């Protein structure tokens, strides 16, 4: 699906005129119209000077409050914030997206229309709207969504593709453009195992890739999670920080997905210890530069959006200045901070006083802006 961004232009002919003195004819000058600029979702990861230029143009029009806002994504719905709270965040210009968390298809659709109307009113960029629309969770997270099989019930790759197509159809109808799916963890962990394609380990990579490709064909960002791997730890990061002791055995699930163009990866609240190169020193991976920048960005070469797992989870909630640390580690989006306005202020304060941190924020914000343009959310003049 292509989204067309058409610059305003003036095209026409300068008609020939005759000089009264000598009746000579001047040749008409033809002004060629500018070529339309066409972007699609896959352009996000490509070398595209025209897209680069549009990102810079939009970025330069934004103040620091709006720039930092691109990095903050609270949730709305049951277990999230109230709609009134999100409306206030929009008015305060402190968020750049919303996770639609536990509600009905109808109310989410209505809320998104309202949010976008308010964004236009207050001069905000359009939002990224996300959901945990995994095969195993979507029918619980979005009441009224089309019934699909759970991830561990799917029998073949054709069913996986059909499932992704069905889910994407519902998301597009609602206005959700960012799916936090698929789960690419191994199956042993009871918290995430039934949510992955890991019932047969050999299926995880090809089936996850198939789900990602179908999702992104439908102009929705797909997300591989939970990096660097949640399937082989025994506990639940919702409740407390979990630890990978030694080798990160699930890293191998990611290179193929990255090479094939997955646009987003979610980082888990999992520490790494007894690992000479990537020890997180007691921090969750979400707040560790070793994991986010050195491993995911530098070693694995991932250039897409990096989003934290929910920042109200037990695995990170007690980390001081967690929002700042997540962005400093290399994440682009802070998901579900306990207090979105406080997280925004925390990042903004550092942005205004720390030049190196400012560079990281600018880079993250430009990635979010680039994604919004590539998706067709921003109609560039």
Keywords:
disordered N terminus; two-stranded antiparallel ribbon; 7-stranded parallel sheet
For the sheet with most strands, the description reads:
7 strands, parallel
Q: Strand percentage, roughly?
A: 5-15%
Lateral strand order in the biggest sheet:
6-7-9-11-12-14-16
Radius of gyration: 23 Å
Mean pLDDT, rounded to whole units?
90
Net shape: globular
Structural category is alpha/beta
Uncertain runs = 1-35
**Helix and strand element order:** EEEEHHEEHEEHEHEHEHEEHEEHEHEHH
CATH topology: TIM Barrel
CATH domain class: Alpha Beta
> Can you tell me the number of structural domains?
1
Helix content: 25-40%
Summarize it.
By secondary structure, the protein is α/β, with parallel strands linked by helices. It is built from twelve helices and 17 strands. Helix 1 (49-60) packs across helix 12.
General description of the model:
The chain has 381 residues and is an alpha/beta fold. It has one domain: Glycoside hydrolase, family 3, N-terminal domain (TIM Barrel), CATH 3.20.20. It is built from twelve helices and 17 strands. It has a seven-stranded parallel beta sheet with strand order 6-7-9-11-12-14-16. It has a two-stranded antiparallel ribbon with strand order 1-4. α7 links the parallel β11 and β12. The chain is globular, with a radius of gyration of 23 Å. 48% of the residues are buried.
């Amino acid at each position: 699906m292509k989204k067309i961004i058409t610059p305003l232009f003036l095209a026409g002919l300068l008609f020939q005129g005759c000089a009264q003195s000598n009746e000579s004819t001047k040749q008409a000058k033809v002004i060629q119209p500018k070529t339309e600029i066409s972007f699609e979702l896959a352009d996000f990861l490509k070398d595209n000077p025209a897209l680069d230029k549009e990102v810079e143009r939009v970025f330069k029009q934004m103040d620091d409050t709006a720039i930092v806002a691109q990095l903050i994504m609270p949730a709305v719905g049951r277990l999230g914030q109230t709609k009134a709270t999100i409306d206030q965040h929009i008015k305060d210009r402190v968020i750049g997206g919303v996770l639609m968390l536990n509600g009905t298809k109808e109310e989410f659709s209505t809320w998104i229309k309202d949010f976008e109307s308010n964004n236009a009113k207050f001069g905000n960029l359009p939002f990224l709207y996300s959901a945990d629309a995994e095969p195993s969770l979507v029918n619980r997270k979005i009441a009224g969504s089309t019934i699909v099989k759970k991830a561990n019930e799917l029998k073949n790759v054709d069913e996986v593709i059909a499932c992704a197509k069905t889910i994407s159809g519902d998301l597009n109808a609602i206005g959700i453009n960012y799916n936090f799916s698929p789960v690419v963890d191994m199956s042993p962990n009871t918290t995430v195992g039934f949510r992955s394609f890991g019932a047969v380990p050999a299926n995880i990579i090809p089936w996850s890739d198939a789900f990602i490709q179908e999702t992104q064909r439908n102009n929705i960002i797909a997300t591989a999670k939970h990096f660097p791997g949640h399937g082989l730890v025994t506990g639940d990061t919702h409740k407390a920080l979990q630890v990978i002791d030694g080798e990160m055995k699930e890293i191998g699930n990611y290179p193929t997905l990255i090479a094939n163009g997955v646009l987003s990866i979610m980082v888990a609240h999992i520490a790494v210890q007894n690992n000479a190169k990537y020890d997180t020193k007691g921090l969750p991976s979400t707040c560790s530069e070793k994991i986010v920048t050195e491993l995911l960005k530098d070693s694995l070469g991932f250039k897409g959006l990096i989003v934290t797992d929910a920042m109200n989870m037990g695995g990170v909630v007690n980390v001081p200045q967690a929002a700042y640390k997540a962005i400093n580690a290399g994440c682009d989006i802070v998901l579900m901070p306990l207090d979105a306005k406080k997280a925004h202020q925390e990042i903004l304060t550092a942005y205004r006083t720390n030049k190196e941190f400012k560079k990281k924020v600018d880079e993250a914000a430009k990635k979010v802006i680039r994604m919004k343009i590539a998706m067709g959310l921003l109609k560039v003049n």
